[in-house]
Every structure is written in C-alpha cells, then in structure tokens.
Design brief:
Elements (H helix, E strand, L loop, with lengths): L1 E6 L2 E5 L3 H11 L17 E4 L10 H8 L1 H4 L7 H11 L1 E4 L2 E7 L42 H13 L4 E5 L16 E3 L9 E5 L5 E4 L8 E8 L2 E9 L9 H11 L4 E7 L14 H12 L2 E3 L8 E5 L2 E5 L2 E6 L6 E7 L10 E6 L24 H14 L12 H22 L16 H23 L4 H31 L6 H9 L12 E2 L2 E2 L3 H12 L9 H11 L12 H9 L14 H10 L1 H14 L8 E8 L12 E6 L2 H20 L16 H17 L3 E7 L4 H4 L8 E7 L2 E7 L10 H13 L7 E6 L2 E8 L2 H21 L10 E4 L10 E2 L2 E2 L5 E4 L2 E4 L5 H20 L9 H17 L2 H4 L6 H19 L7 H8 L4 H21 L1
Helix pairs in contact: 8-9, 10-11, 12-24, 15-16, 15-18, 16-17, 23-26, 24-26, 26-27
Protein name: (apollo) hypothetical protein
InterPro entries: Endo/exonuclease/phosphatase (IPR005135), RdDP_mobile_element (IPR052560), RT_dom (IPR000477)
GO molecular function: catalytic activity
C-alpha cells in the first residue's frame, strides 16, 4: 500500500489489488470523521467560446454531433478522450450558423507553485511555493536540485581525491541537459526528456567510454578499462511513484547483457527495503530487490544513516532511497562505503562515497585533449634562441650537405630537428597544464566557514536523534544557517561575475565577450556509436569506426576511366623544373600563419616555427627544396592528428553522422604545401586551366559574385518569358571521397577514449589541408568544362554545385535537365564521387516549371519552395523575405544571450557591445546585401531591422528600454540598417555592370 498527500486535508491511498481496496472501503463505512470513496477518473473537458445565446443548451450535444462529421465518427459511450483530442486538433467546430473556438479546459492543468488548477507555474502570481508532497510552505521541495547544490558537488569533486561522480537529478537550469564544466567529462544521454542521471569523470582516471545502447535520460552507463579488466558503472534515477520512463527495465537489460563482468550501479531509486536499512519495504523496493537478486548483484549500503532528509511541519523526515549495488566479482573491491554528510550540506540528499581497489600499474592510457603543449605567448625568445643554438651545436645537423641527402637521411634530419626544437621550447616556455581547477574563483573563506557550520549542525541533528533529544531548536537553527549559506553563495557568485564582466576591455573583446555570446556545441566525451543495427563495443572499435567513416578506403577500379587515370599518374610531364624556394618566400608564408591556430601532432605553433626559421632560414629552406627535388613529402609532416567535433543541433549523438572531423597538420607540413601549391596555381592561371565558373578557393571571387551570376541567368530567362529551375546538387562527403592516386602514405591519428588508432588514407582530403581546396577545384573543373545541353548552366563554390536550366517549354526543360543530370551522375562515377538525390534541392522560379518531371539517378526530384544557396535563402519569387527574417532571428538570439551578461548599471563593457555589433551583427545582417538589399526599403523589413537594432543600441549606451529608437541609435552612433544595406546593394550592381561593359 502506498499513501501520498493529495491535498492538505486528504490522502490518496494506492493498493496492490482491487480486493484490498474494496475491503478497506467496507471497513471505513460508518466511521465518523473519515470519508472514503473510490478515486474518480476525471474525463478531459473543453470550453467552447463564443456560442450564441440563442442555441439551446439542452440540444448542444446533438447539434455538435450532427454538424461535425469528424467528431461524430469517433463518438462512443466509452472513448471520450478521442473526442477531446479531435476537437482540440480542429480548433473550431460548427454549432448552428457559427464556427466557435475550442480550448482545453482540463482539470489536469495544475500549477506546481501554488498547487491550484487552471494555470501553470509560468503564470502563477502566488508569493510562496508549496511542497508538492505535503503542501507545506516551510521548506523548498526542490532545494536539492538548485544551482548551489551543483556548485557544492563540483567543488568537492574537483578539490577532493575523487575520479568519478554519479549524480541523480542534476541541475540543468532552463535547459534540458547538464552544462559542461572545464576539466571534467560529463556523460549524459538525451533521449527527449530532461536529464535525470549523469556521470562526471576526470580525464586522469583512465579509458572511459559511454554506452549509448543502454543509456537514456534517466539511466547513464559507462565502461572503464583498467588494465585488462572492464568495469561497467551506471547512474540511475527512477521517479517516486510511477516509473514513467521504464528505467528499471533498462537497468535489468543492462545487467543481463553485461553478463559476468564487473558492474557498479548507484543512484536514487526511491525504494524502501530492510536490506539497505529501511524500516519497511514498499512495492518499488521489492521490485528493485528482484532485479538485484536475479542478476547476482549485492547491495553495498551499510548502516542506518539516511540518504535523504527534510523537514515538514517542524518534523524531521528521513529515508534511505539512494542505493549502491555491485556484482559479486567486484563487491570485495569496494572499500570504505559511507554516507558523507560533509560534501553537500545544502542538499536534502546526503552524498555517498567509496573507493574501488584495483591494481592500475599495468594500465596503458593515452590522453591528449589538445595539441597546444607550450605557452608560446609567454615565451622568452632570447632563451629559446640560445638553447636552440646550443642543441644545434651539439648535434651534427649543420654539418650535413642537405642537397645530397636521400629520402631516409632527410627523414632522419627532420626527426632530429624536431627533438632539438622541443628541447629549446621546454627550456624557454611553460608547458600547459592538463589538470582541473581545484576551486571556483568566487569561493571565499566566509563561504567555507558557513559550510562548516551547516555541516556541524547536520552532525548535531543526527546525534540528537540517536539520543532521543528534542530537535526543534536544532532544526530551526539549521534552516536559518542553510538559507544564509545559500544566499551568500548566490551573492558571491553574482558579485564575481559582475566584476568579470566589468573588467572586459576592448583588448579582450574577442577572447572573452564574444566567447560568452557564442552558442558553441559543448564538447562531448566519447561514447559507443551506432553502425546500422549494431553498436561499437569498446574504445578501439569506436575509434576505428570513426576513422573508417570519415576517411573511407578507396573502392576498386571498376570502370575503364579509373584505370586510365591511374596510368596517367605514372607518366610524369616533360617540363622544366620549378625554381627553388627562396628564404624570403619561406619567411613570408610563415608570417601569414596565425599562432592561435591549433598545431599538429608535433605541438609546434606557427610562432615557434617562425622563430626557428628566423634563426636558421638557410637550413629550413634547403630542407624544403630537397623535398621538392626528391618529390618527397616527409612522413612526419603529412600525418594529421584528428579531432572529432559534434555537429550542433543534433538530437542523437550516438550516430556517426552527428560528428565531423578536423585534421590538425604540422605547421612545417602546411608550409611545404603552401609553397608548392602556389606554383601549381600559378601554372594553372598562366595556362588558363582554371574554370571561371568555380568561385570557391580562388582570389578575387566571393559568394556574392556566385549568387549574382546565377540570379542574372534566372532573371534573364524570366524577362524572356522562359521557364527556369535551379538544382542545388549534393556531393556525398565530397572532400572525404576526393580521389587522387598521386598521394601516398598519408596517415591520420585519432586519440579516442584512451586509445590511439592510426590509419593510412587511400583517398580523401584532410579538412585543414592547405593544398586540398585547390586540388579539389582541379578535380571539379572537369565537370565545369563539360558540354551540357542548351539552356543549362553549371557553377560551383567549392563543393556546392548549382545547375540552372532554362527553356521555352516544359518538354524542353525536362529533356535538358534530365540529360544534364545524367551526365553529371556519370561523371561522378568516373571519379568515384556520388551525387545524393535525397539531399539535392530543386526549385522552380516560374509556376509552369513545377509540372516538369525531373529525375536524378532513378529518383524523382521534388520541388521545394525555397533553397539555401551559399548562406542566402532563395524563394520562388525572389523577394528574399525569408532570408531577412532568418538573419534577424539569428541576431536576436545573440542579443538574448547578451542580455544575460549586460544590465543598465553593470555587465559587458559598452565599447565591447558596440564592437560586437559592428564586427558580428552588422556583417551577419548585411551579408550578401548586394543580392537582397533592395528589399530593405519595404516597411515591414525596415521595422524588423529597426526593432533588432534598437536592442543593441540600448545595451551599447546602457540606457533603459523607455528610450526612443531614434535617440538610442543616435547616441550609439549606429546607422539604420535599411540605409546601410541599400548602398551595399548598389555597389555590386555597379561593379557587375562595369564588368559587362569591359
């Protein structure tokens, strides 16, 4: 039997069987002062608004049934909820001669603040919050999930000798997931509901892999590899009354599928049982015990110290609902299990800590979170130069004649040179620490004292309970201290954040202010990934699956064209050798590289390489020229270190498609690429080998020119009364599948979940390569040079290919488009590239063109009302209204984030806000204004732009919202955007006309 408070004056009693319920009702009949009745199952209700008074109320049901066939079809005596759902879906129903509005009037709409019906917490005007369990105002029933509790847990976790933390009901704020913390890996699995269970882990504790196949929002499972053994650890949360998410079933599946391996599970299961110290058991506790026993698990809880404590109506309430249980193979390795009252005294849940005794001497673990190794921005370059000269003297590198070296000797010299530079770096600059921060910067001695006082009162309360002493005075004192402690913690964190915002200056606008406003996807720790119908099982397999997905193996040569291309690569052209690289050329290329960009596997940033080149320009130039002479690219310089980046906005991060790779190449390797690709581009331009329809990765071209060229053809066709369509073609993983057989022995390295995997690439291009974009253009130029049917025009910007087809009739349009698409698909097969029909977009700019049947590789293409081309949304009528709305919404999202860090009297520096407005917002809004700027003169567009601009102006002058828009823009010195966009529209048009005249 389960008893819960329903209202202040009533109880809801739940029985295991209907017989028990009927027996209790019989016994209570005739009892004075107690009224018992079965729980009524309330049916959902709707309210009909605006019904005429002339409609008879008695005939209302009959009228609704007769005049609304959609509802009459599903009306029955037993299934009223379907009628309720259908009426709400319709929105309006017919009654007599009216169409009246239907709204929900369900009694289940309850406020969780005042516990009244008819409104939600968002619209509640009550001054006090009521406990959801007992309707008391004496305590906060959600105190254990507040931000202060999360602060306490993180402080204790980072400062203490802990490696892993299992958290139930973590603080998530207004979002749905736990925010990431610097230096800590947060394992959580969002499956549609708010995160209720997560695991925190320090990177030092070994190879950890999240288990996506078992995890949900309420259940988080990971696998830790210690030596040759695997340990499965899970954090769990189960709702108090009803297991809404079937979490216990997920737990049972997890325990059965992991077999006889080491397993530890901990969390809030909201169950009672004498085995873990409860006075009695409840149905939830019995269910948990059945799962534990059936899977050979053992409860680790010892003693009778409660894990949950609260105070209601002046009485102390406590229970043991937080459990730890482990498999028999590891139960003896769990030592010093205890309920720790000192970790988070502000929470209603007491923390549990314990040790796992394992021999980690044989553990091999590879962890490299960043390729930034040296703090080169604080380097002492005179010491670097001195140490570099010393080590170069001790070696015999300078004694070699570089021009006579063979490939093996050249590789040996480069390896020696790398070691010398590392030695000079370690002597002249600090190595970056990879540890975690021990404390929050706003934590003070006063907060530490208040925390200790609350902890002491907690211990006094337990001592008084054991001795049977009165608790009222201690409870009241502890309540006051907890409130003081919580308020002080909130004040200190807010004060420190205000100071942080006010210290920002123009010098750190990009390093601090802009980073606060960026909505970057948080880093996600490694988890098992879904490969079709199965999941990866360990770190090695997961890392290999990622590399195989992003850098696929070359497919067999099945066409004659494939063999012809391979044979052409073996025949070297009979031409003169290129001139050697010069020292000035080498130094100029190094100066163009930013030291803030992540280095490659050798950990050398561009300023370190530039300093070495300045000290030994002849040596470096001779090595680069020898590479050119030998036609050899050093192995160390063409090895890429791969970082896996989660794509933003994905709902399932267990899919391989939810990530993208970034290849970090050594600076010296990028230098060699840049030097020789300049010669390739010069040769191609001199011989007019680059197609002018390729606008990407070329000098003096941009996206606006590409869009303008395509629109010029479309508008010309419309002016001549011709039909016109545009097809945006999608090349599946274009850079990953780019096929060139001239490259050899390229390698990629991935560190994932403590395991390092290396793969030799047989096709594809490292995204981060200097020569990759130019070589891609050379591949695609073959398609752009092809002869297409009359009325077809093809252009590209990198791998974004656009086909425009115009014709005088539907038949001609179909024939030309289908023939052109067939030729494009066949060309793709000849170079091992695949065009994806599912992601190909087809848009018609004339109504009659929509009846055309356009097919691509056996798939019928469907027309879409709009298509995004190089960041600009093109609609069927070319009025650009949706594009302007999208960029304004993007700017508004940035403004809403800015509001959290800026107030009328404090916050981000006004000059920083003005800088971000001019350098981020204005370019975002006016991007491609040369294409759409003419619509800025429309009244609706002017209002939308002015409304968005006004918010930034008020923040820039720290004004109040009552200030007029004109005054705010004038004081902030912001030009109205509708005036700014119009000149940008006219300038490209003038440039295009001049180009046509010439």
């Amino acid at each position: 039997m389960l008893i819960t408070h329903r209202l202040v004056f009533s109880l809801c009693v739940e029985f295991d069987t209907e017989t028990q319920s009927n027996d209790t009702l019989t016994r209570l009949e005739g009892k004075t002062g107690i009224k018992a009745e079965p729980v009524r199952k309330l049916r959902p209700m709707v309210i009909l608004k605006g019904i005429s008074k002339d409609v008879p109320a008695d005939d209302l049901t009959k009228i609704i049934r007769q005049q609304n066939e959609e509802i009459n079809e599903i009306i029955s005596d037993d299934v009223d909820p379907k009628v309720y759902s259908k009426m709400l879906t319709l929105g309006r129903i017919g009654i007599d001669y009216q169409r009246v509005h239907v709204a929900s009037f369900s009694p289940f709409l309850q406020c969780h603040r005042c516990l009244q019906f008819g409104h939600t917490k968002l619209r509640c005007t009550a001054d006090q919050s009521f406990c959801l369990h007992c309707a008391s105002t004496e305590h906060d029933c959600n105190l254990d999930r507040c931000k202060n509790t999360q602060h306490e847990i993180l402080l204790s976790f980072m400062a203490g000798d802990y490696d892993i933390a299992l958290i139930s009901e973590p603080y998530i704020g207004s979002g749905e997931q736990v925010k990431s913390t610097f230096g800590i890996d947060t394992y959580q699995f969002f499956t549609g509901n708010k995160i209720k269970a997560c695991i925190l882990a320090k990177p030092r504790c070994g190879s950890i892999l999240g288990l996506s196949q078992y995890s949900t929002s309420n259940f988080c499972a990971i696998k830790i590899t210690v030596g040759n053994r695997n340990i499965y650890i899970a954090s769990i949360y189960v709702e108090p009354n009803i297991d809404e998410s079937n979490t216990l079933d997920k737990l049972d599946v997890f325990l059965k599928n992991t077999g006889d391996s080491h397993k530890i599970v901990g969390g809030d299961l909201n169950g009672w049982h004498p085995i873990w110290g409860s006075v009695k058991s409840n149905p939830r506790g019995n269910e948990v015990i059945d799962i534990i026993h059936s899977n050979d698990m053992y409860v680790c809880n010892v003693g009778n110290i409660p894990t949950f404590e609260t105070v209601t109506h002046g009485r102390d309430r406590s229970s043991i609902i937080d459990l730890t249980f482990a498999s028999g193979s590891i139960i003896d390795n769990i030592l010093e299990w205890r309920v720790n009252l000192n970790i988070s005294p502000i929470s209603q849940h007491n923390a549990i800590d314990y040790c796992i005794d394992f021999d980690t001497s044989n553990t091999t673990y590879t962890y490299q979170n960043s390729t930034f190794l040296y703090k080169s921005n604080k380097a002492c370059w005179p010491i670097f130069k001195d140490k570099l000269h010393t080590h170069m003297t001790l070696t015999n590198i300078l004694e070699h004649d570089i021009s006579t070296l063979n490939v093996d000797d050249l590789e040996h010299i480069i390896n020696e040179l790398t070691n010398v530079i590392h030695s000079a770096c370690r002597a002249s600059m600090h190595v970056k620490s990879r540890g975690t921060k021990p404390k929050a910067p706003w934590w003070t001695e006063e907060l530490e004292t208040l925390k200790r006082e609350v902890v002491d009162l907690h211990h006094q309360l337990h001592a008084a309970k054991r001795q049977g002493m009165p608790l009222e005075h201690i409870l009241e004192t502890r309540k006051q201290k907890k409130e003081l402690y919580a308020n002080k913690m909130r004040e200190e964190s807010t004060r420190h954040f205000r100071e942080f915002c006010e210290l920002q200056t123009k010098e750190n606008v990009w390093s601090l202010t802009n980073r606060l406003l960026k909505n970057a996807t948080p880093r996600r720790p490694p988890v098992t990934l879904n490969r079709g119908s199965t999941y990866t099982t360990d770190s090695q397999e997961t890392a290999k699956a990622l590399l195989d997905h992003f850098y696929p193996d070359d497919s067999p040569d099945t066409l004659t064209r494939h063999h012809e291309l391979r044979s052409e690569m073996t025949d070297l052209p009979q031409s003169h050798d290129d001139p050697p690289f010069t020292q000035e050329e080498v130094l100029e290329c190094l100066k163009q590289m930013s030291p803030k960009k992540a280095p490659g596997f050798d950990n050398f940033t561009s300023d370190i390489c530039q300093q070495f080149a300045t000290d030994y320009p002849r040596l470096l130039t001779d090595i680069l020229n020898r590479c050119l002479t030998l036609q050899h690219f050093p192995d160390q310089w063409k090895t890429a270190y791969v970082k896996i980046i989660p794509k933003p906005g994905k709902s399932d991060y267990s899919a391989l498609e939810s990530f993208r790779p970034i290849g970090l190449l050594p600076v010296f390797g990028k230098l060699l690429e840049k030097l020789f690709i300049k010669r390739v581009v010069y040769h191609a331009q001199r011989n007019n080998r680059l197609n002018k329809c390729q606008f990407g990765f070329r000098e003096q071209t941009n996206t606006c020119e590409a869009i303008h060229t395509a629109l010029k053809i479309i508008k010309l066709a419309k002016s001549e009364k011709h039909l016109s369509i545009a097809i945006s073609l999608d090349i599946k993983a274009a850079f990953d599948n780019a096929w060139w057989s001239a490259f050899r022995d390229r390698k990629v390295i991935l560190d994932h979940a403590g395991r390092r995997v290396t793969k030799t690439m047989s096709k594809g291009c490292i995204q981060g390569s200097t020569c990759g974009p130019v070589l891609w253009n050379i591949i695609l130029d073959e398609l752009l040079d092809a002869r297409l049917p009359a009325g077809c025009y093809i252009q590209a910007f990198a791998d974004d290919v656009l086909l425009v087809v115009t014709a005088s009739s539907v038949g001609e349009l179909e024939s030309a488009a289908n023939l052109a698409l067939h030729h494009i698909v066949e060309w793709g097969r000849s170079v091992k590239l695949t065009f994806g029909p599912t992601k190909t977009k087809l848009i018609a700019f004339t109504p009659k063109a929509k009846v055309a049947s356009i097919n691509m590789d056996g798939h019928r293409l469907s027309f879409v009302p709009e298509v995004k081309l190089l960041g600009v949304i093109l609609d069927e009528k070319l009025n650009f209204g949706k594009h302007v709305k999208q960029v304004i919404n993007k700017a508004v999202r940035i403004f809403n984030t800015l509001c959290m860090y800026s107030r009328p009297t404090w916050g981000a520096h006004p000059e920083n806000i003005s800088t971000i407005y001019h350098q981020v917002i204005v370019p975002t809004i006016t991007y491609a204004a040369g294409i759409w700027g003419h619509v800025a003169q429309k009244r609706c567009i002017r209002r939308a732009l002015g409304s968005m601009q006004r918010g930034f102006a008020i923040k820039a002058i720290r004004g109040f919202r009552t200030k007029s828009s004109s005054a705010a823009l004038a004081l902030a010195q912001f030009m109205p955007l509708d005036l700014k966009g119009c000149p940008r529209y006219k300038m490209p048009i003038c440039a295009a006309r001049d180009d046509l005249k010439s």
